[in-house]
Design a protein that fits this description.
3 helices; Non-ribosomal Peptide Synthetase Peptidyl Carrier Protein, Chain A
Length: about 90
């Protein structure tokens, strides 16, 4: 399973929301609010074994599934464009 699919599962299981598009702005479209963002950060840290520092909490890093995907890859020391089978744009995989 790809990181993008794992993120969609996390949104469904932890936040009880479906994200229809990997590039959709999650905050502007009301998918997450400030409280959900805190819950999202904690869930991402736990699920993906990363530590999100205050420096990484720029809201733009959490605007979309793709932005969050890139942040996790960066925190893991992987490049966002690497050949890891990630879906970088378009509709979410069902």
């Amino acid at each position: 399973m790809s990181l993008t699919n794992d993120l969609h599962t996390l949104f469904r299981e932890q936040l009880q929301v479906d994200v229809p598009d990997n590039d959709m702005n999650l905050m502007e479209n009301g998918i997450i609010d400030s409280l959900a963002l805190v819950n999202l950060i904690m869930a991402v840290e736990e699920k993906f074994s990363v530590s999100i520092s205050l420096e990484d909490t720029d809201l733009q890093r959490f605007e979309s599934v793709n932005q969050l995907n890139d942040l996790i890859l960066e925190l893991r020391g992987e490049s966002a464009g690497s050949s890891n089978g990630e879906v970088k744009s378009g509709k979410a995989a069902s």
